[in-house]
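call fold target=Thiol-disulfide isomerase/thioredoxin
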Amino acid sequence: MGSRSPKHPRGARSRALAAMATLALLGVAGLAGCSGDGSGGGGEGGDGSRSTNATTRFVSGSGTVTTMPPDERRRAPAVAGTTLDGKRIALADYRGKVVVLNVWGSWCAPCRKEAPDLAAAARALRAKGVEFLGINTRDVSRQPAQAFVRTFDVPYPSIYDPNGDQLLGFRATLPPSAIPSTLVIDKQGRVAARVLGNVSRRTLEQLTTDVTGLR
């Protein structure tokens, strides 16, 4: 993020430092995920979830997948911000729909690996009422992220979140503690599943089918 001038407001500096600290807590596995094969860290009991019945399994090439039974799902935080194109958007805009929420950065190799599958899944699953929303994190400017979207023809919007502010509220649910991470939000606005590391189209289709009940 670079050093800040003393002229900047103390509140802005404190907010940035708090976001960095939280990313450090949530994102140690994320650094490993982006430097390795994308399988990402976060074993059972280390994801911040208080559930005892969450199902955690390793999917070859796609990272760690955790699913939550309906009666133990926690509500997703109020994610909202400005897209890479400068438009206001919020998770609440998709109320009543299943949402796939992908956390990514243009600098992240596993994010580039998964991008074609995410784009294909978004187009295929729209007919089933599944919406996609991205959170672009730790890009110092919008330009690299916008180039990423053009390169991979990403058909859904992403919130520009360079400091990771949007990730803070997930600490009480299934935190996206790797980059990339993907969450599936059910129709009631609860976090139903999480993938740490790059995700495949097949995994997304399986997870959203389980959440929507549509075959």
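return ok
The radius of gyration is 16 Å. Residues 17 and 163 are 9 Å apart (CA to CA).
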